[in-house]
Design a protein that fits this description.
By secondary structure, the chain is mainly α. It has one domain. It contains 13 helices and 6 strands. The strands form 3 sheets. Strands 1-2 form a two-stranded antiparallel sheet. Strands 3-4 form a two-stranded antiparallel ribbon. The longest helix has 32 residues.
Length: 357
């Protein structure tokens, strides 16, 4: 599989619904498991899949998507419960030669999840992405595929961390984050009990996590720490939220390393370079590396040639990071140079026919 694989994030961005602000109708929920046969060891099993089609839960700036129940991304990687071969569900059923099967088995040999009864319930979602990453490396797949798995792992940690807020507040677009923060703030003011206030404040921290604002997230959590000292349940929830934030950040840092490797390559197409640079900029922002994020977003802006949803989002995030940032104006289309009209050549006169006898 040497052909360049464009990451899922690219495919999602190109689709027109990425940052639509209308909320689609809710999904009917999860469907029954689909049957799979592992192409490595032949194990037959079923894998439950959430129904894709509704993005009621919204989309984050790095293209992490949420289904109506806030869970669909967690179903996106299939893992064989016996040998732990893993891949995105669409690419899981492949034909491998003996050498490839041995490479996969060697890559997953140290997995502590081999032989589980059901991979979906016994393997944490980001660990399923980690297994898929190992298999991808074993198969010598393109670097873009490995970057994709690291991003999916970070998304899975975030989806789990912010699920209560996502179910309560379906944020259809990243641009609406501030509106929802203000909405929850008004609810906090009207809350009758301290416990209810704290629950809503934790939702605010989760919304900031989705928005990628770690500074505001940590401010809210610092406010909640004092109350959590007297509320064991609140402390448990905050600790779990923080733990998942650490998991997400760990995968984001690893993704950045591979993105830099990919961008250093000579075979990067312009559209892939643009998307990779944008993802790099937004990942830096989500890690709280403000100056690096600003610098990279400026590079993204320089790579853009025409208006697009991506440019709208880039401008929005850049002006939030650097208020007053002078954004470059769209380049005027260059007038086409008229081609010089060439005078058609006159064909040579045919040789005269010999005189008749």
């Amino acid at each position: 599989m040497r052909r360049l694989v464009i990451p899922i994030v690219v495919a999602l961005l190109v689709s027109g619904h990425m940052w639509a602000q209308e909320t689609p109708a809710p999904s009917p929920g999860a469907v029954k498991g689909d049957p799979y046969s592992c192409p490595v060891d032949g194990r037959k099993f079923t894998h439950p899949q959430s129904r894709i089609g509704s993005l009621q839960g919204g989309v984050d700036s790095d293209h992490c998507t949420y289904e109506g129940n806030g869970d669909w991304v967690l179903y996106s990687i299939v893992v064989c419960p016996r040998c732990n071969y893993a891949a995105i569900r669409d690419t899981f059923p492949r034909a491998f030669n003996p050498k490839q099967r041995q490479a996969i088995l060697k890559a997953t040999a140290d997995s502590s999840y081999r032989g589980v009864t059901e991979a979906m319930t016994e393997i944490p979602p980001w660990e399923r992405a980690e297994l898929a990453l190992k298999c991808s490396k074993a198969l010598d797949e393109p670097l873009s595929m490995q970057i994709q798995y690291l991003h999916m792992a970070s998304w899975m940690a975030r989806v789990k961390a912010v699920r209560p807020a996502t179910r309560a507040y379906p944020i259809a677009s990243p641009i609406l984050v501030d509106d929802f923060v203000r909405l929850i703030g008004r609810k906090v003011e009207r809350a009758d009990t301290p416990k209810e206030k704290n629950r809503l404040k934790l939702h605010t921290a989760m919304i900031h996590q989705r928005g990628g604002d770690v500074t505001e997230r940590d401010k809210v959590l610092a406010e909640l720490d004092q109350a959590a000292a007297k509320d064991p349940l609140l402390k448990t929830r905050i600790d779990e939220f923080r733990k998942l934030n650490v998991v997400e950040a760990g995968y984001q840092k690893r993704a950045l390393e591979l993105i830099d490797q990919r961008l250093a390559g000579e075979d990067v197409r312009p559209d892939e370079r643009l998307m990779m640079t944008y993802i790099k900029a937004d990942t830096l922002r989500r890690l709280g590396l403000k100056e690096d994020a600003i610098k990279t977003f400026r590079e993204v802006r320089r790579l853009m040639r025409r208006p697009s949803q991506l440019r709208t989002m880039t401008d929005y995030l850049l002006t939030r990071l650097a208020p007053g940032e002078p954004l470059p104006k769209p380049e005027a289309p260059k007038p086409e140079t008229p081609k010089e009209t060439e005078t058609p050549k006159t064909p040579e006169d045919p040789e005269p026919s010999p005189p008749a006898d």
